[in-house]
Amino acid sequence: MADSRLQDVLFYSLESAIKAYRRFAQARLSAAGIDITIDQWLVLNMIHESADITLQQIGAAVFKDFASVTRIVQLLERKGLLRRTPHPSDGRWSQLALTSAGKSVISAVEPIAQANRRKALDGIDARHQAQLRAVLKQIMENCDARD
Amino acid sequence: MADSRLQDVLFYSLESAIKAYRRFAQARLSAAGIDITIDQWLVLNMIHESADITLQQIGAAVFKDFASVTRIVQLLERKGLLRRTPHPSDGRWSQLALTSAGKSVISAVEPIAQANRRKALDGIDARHQAQLRAVLKQIMENCDARD
DNA sequence: CACGCTTTATTGATATATCAAAGAAATCAC
DNA sequence: GTGATTTCTTTGATATATCAATAAAGCGTG
Questions:
Q1: Quick check: B101 pLDDT over 90?
Q2: Other C-beta atoms within 10 Å of B23: how many?
């Protein structure tokens, strides 16, 4: 069988590559003295970009379980990057808004995030990036199928 | 900026795709009544394939932190899939060997793993798979660079 | 309005990831 | 051989992922 060794399994490469990128990106963030995790930043950024978003919408947007989003939001609140105010007419959820500290973090992270992506994609041209995107989309569809 | 939205960030797609695959594969394993996680299986399989492997070598092979490997091995031992015997001449490590229950799990998982990969890669031809592999390799190298 | 149903969020238990610290055994230098 | 260093492993603390169970608010229908 051609693909019996672990190293030949494509999903193993996929997993390794994304882990390598996460370690790389997190190290760059920490080196810049920014005390936030990649995942916390993802959630914070979603809230920054979309007013009146619910936790479930965040979860769907960043491909995270609702339970994880709940805990990340609690951490962000504890860190003072985020404020929650009860929604006036629907008691099930709270409105989320960045504090000024939260906005500072977003501004500080943005250039680092862009530099990280640029460095990680160094030498990979637009055509290959587009192909990668297409293949990943196909994989997601294949894994979503209910049959 | 063209890539400002989260959904346009390639690494976000990468992460989503691998998460989708992991959920899919884990669900198939559980549905088959096999009580093991993907990561436990990865480690168990490495030990199955390589006699006299150390935890550090396993970690390097499956791209996991040594601490994670330690804990996964402890779980596999507790589940009775793995046995450790102290190494006769080097007291720092133990020899790892699958129990018969462990071997049964490997046999049971193998066809499911192959079917999962086949299904997840449905419609993606060998050329695109090779390109994906090459791009992932490049990303890993870019993220490993010390500069 | 009272009931059941849906939506939104939280919590608990367990597994994994990461970093840092510590333990223990082997090896090297002298 | 003893002390310092290196190698292999473990443990602790914290963050995230997943599944299951629960809580709490809104909504619809009678």
A1: yes
A2: 15
